[in-house]
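From the pipeline queue, job 12 of 40. The input is one protein chain; the requested action is below.

Action: predict structure.
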Amino acid sequence: MRLPNGRLPAPPHDDTGHSWHHPGEVLFAIVKKGLVPPYAPAGYESDMPAFGTVLSDEDIRAVLAYIESRWSGEVVKIREEMLAPLRGARR
């Protein structure tokens, strides 16, 4: 269901959302810089603010670690399998 401003609300960060589909560095960048290119099209309007001026990198990593700790073992396994090819491409 869309918000009154026409945008979709943030997805949950549990197994039912899609945060776990993204590599850690992408999640970190989105939290730090907001939903901007290359993670969204130029001019994309989002309610996701940048937290880089409010939270330290260490704080952002702690928030993401907490979110990841809420994912089920099944989702963690699927995520590892899904992201494994990306890790191999970076070597």
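Job complete. The longest helix spans residues 73-89.
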